[in-house]
Amino acid sequence: MAFSFTPVSGFGLVPTAELINRAFADYVVKFQLTEPALWQAARLDSIDFNASCVVNVDGTPAGVALMARRGWTSRVAAMAVVPEFRRQRAGRALMEYVLAEAKQRGERAMVLEVLTSNTPAVRLYESLEFRRVRRLTSYAGPAPSGLLPAPGLAEADLRAVAAALIREEAINWPWQLSGETIAMLTPPHVAYELDGAWVALVNAAGPSVTIRALAVDGPGRRTERAVRLLHAVSGPPPGHRLACERHLAGGPRAVDHRRRAHARRTKPVADGRA
Description:
alpha+beta; Aminopeptidase; eight-stranded mixed β-sheet; 8 helices; 14 strands
């Protein structure tokens, strides 16, 4: 059994989307990728189609890794193998390849997220010396009723929310919730500010509103100001539901993994997601 690797930029985005959809067909979180969706991911999440690659088993495309890159850090935005090539070490070969390529480029960390229920993937990543960083959780619930308009609530530039996230230097935001990602959002996403608290929303006029990002500037009454802002944007129309988004292909009960290089290792260590 021979493994070979093809950059996504050479393989093509349409066949890459088809390969990903086949590989994720039995995944717990259902989604379908298209060529436009891949271009959108490249813009929002910094997917690099030259660094992303397809693993071939004896010449047959078997799996794909979508790699995002920012500064010294790369991220496994998605990694999957089609069912007929699983348990044949194709996933391990693919991960070892992208780790080696990241090291050769001079990157110092790699990140990924994985559902805790995806035991084979968790075992693979931890065998490659990724370490668990935190647990990522999604929330959903009805918006509070009987709220009054909040004086001072103002629409804001989405880049202002991104700047507030970046100012929170002590918080190591997950990739898709980071200021760099939020800065790439455009309408119909919207943002609001109230008393130094900032929120970015998806589907603000719909029956179910998704909180894309939430940040609070400066010390003092941080939780109180955040709650006041959420109440303010939850008011009309009645019956809204608020959902706190984690990331595209994840969902609840996901764990953020990181692998970081250190002096005595010959391989890079990173943060990861899949």
